[in-house]
């Protein structure tokens, strides 16, 4: 999966004294190179009859801590038995995938809502003050889904349909999912096969994958550091 930069960082983490140029030479000798992203994107359908939430993000995908801003999107995987639809919920601060779901339908109450409920459960059941950002896809703007966002205490936010910049981080997660898993291990036979592989990929993404945006750390490491520093500041001797 890794190109020169991340491979070098991984080797250094594992105790190898090696330079970036040497890493690149060894990769070439071994015939190894990082996977390349696809430019193909998944477009969503909007429901023009629905009143849409405002865009509270305005393409600024930054947060000062976990559970402040989540981005969400849906993609799909072709299988021999039909399409598998995949929904991800990603924490902007740590890049951790906090919720996900794979289903044979795009229905709001099944595909994205179960991903949202997983994320909420991992966060203790309440999302007070959190901004939930998605595009104008009808599965995210359906009343049953927006009601659930507000019931959890979160604030809905939407970008525009067909504009990758308005939900860029969520679309980047989809792109990497396709690049690192789906195109590497296909063809896919069933929705259940995609679901199991996605479970393993999400664990790797959160626990082991090095992220360039996180200074070559994992999402879990970033969150652990945040909470450790917060605890130090709150302690009587901090």
Question: What attributes characterize this protein structure?
Answer:
238 residues; alpha/beta; 5-stranded mixed sheet; 8 helices; 5 strands; 41% helix
What does this protein structure show overall?
This protein is of the alpha/beta class. The protein is 41% helix and 15% strand. It contains 8 helices and 5 strands, in the order H-H-E-E-E-H-E-H-H-E-H-H-H. Helix 1 packs across helix 2 (20-30). The radius of gyration is 19 Å and the shape is globular. The protein starts with a helix and ends with a helix. Pfam families: HTH_21, rve, rve_2.
Task: Write the topology of this structure.
Elements: H1 4-13, H2 20-30, E1 69-79, E2 82-91, E3 97-103, H3 111-122, E4 131-134, H4 138-141, H5 143-151, E5 155-158, H6 168-185, H7 191-207, H8 219-234
Parallel strand pairs: 1-4, 4-5
Antiparallel strand pairs: 1-2, 2-3
Helix pairs in contact: 1-2
Offer a quick outline of the entry:
This protein is α/β, with parallel strands linked by helices and about 240 residues long.
* Strand-residue proportion: 15-25%
Structural class: alpha/beta
Main sheet record? 5 strands, mixed
Oligomer: single chain
Separation of termini? 41 Å
Count every helix, treating DSSP H or I runs of 4 or more residues as helices: 8
Helix and strand run: HHEEEHEHHEHHH
- pLDDT averaged over residues: 88
Helical content (DSSP H or I, runs of 4+) = 40-55%
Q: What Rg do the Cα atoms give?
A: 19 Å
**Shape annotation:** globular
Number of strands: 5
Low-confidence stretches: 40-44
Looking across the biggest beta sheet, what order are the strands in? 3-2-1-4-5
């Amino acid at each position: 999966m890794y190109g020169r930069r991340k491979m070098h960082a991984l080797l250094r983490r594992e105790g190898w004294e090696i330079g970036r140029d040497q890493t690149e030479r060894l990769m070439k000798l071994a015939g190894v190179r990082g996977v390349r992203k696809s430019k193909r994107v998944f477009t969503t359908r909007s429901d023009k009859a629905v009143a849409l939430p405002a865009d509270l993000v305005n393409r600024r995908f930054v947060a000062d801590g976990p559970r402040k801003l989540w981005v969400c999107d849906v993609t799909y995987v072709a299988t021999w038995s039909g399409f598998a639809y995949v929904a991800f919920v990603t924490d902007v601060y740590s890049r951790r995938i906090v919720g996900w779901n794979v289903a044979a339908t795009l229905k709001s109450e099944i595909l994205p809502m179960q991903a949202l409920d997983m994320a909420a459960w991992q966060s203790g059941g309440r999302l007070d003050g959190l901004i939930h950002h998605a595009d104008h896809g009808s599965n995210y703007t359906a009343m049953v889904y927006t009601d659930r966002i507000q019931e959890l205490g979160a604030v809905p936010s939407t970008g525009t349909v067909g504009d990758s910049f308005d939900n860029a981080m969520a679309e980047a997660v989809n792109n990497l999912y396709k690049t690192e898993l789906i195109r590497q291990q296909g063809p896919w036979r069933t929705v259940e096969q995609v679901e199991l592989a996605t479970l393993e990929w999400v664990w790797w993404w959160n626990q082991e994958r090095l992220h360039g945006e996180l200074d070559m750390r994992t999402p879990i490491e970033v969150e652990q550091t945040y909470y450790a520093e917060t605890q130090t500041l709150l302690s009587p001797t901090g």
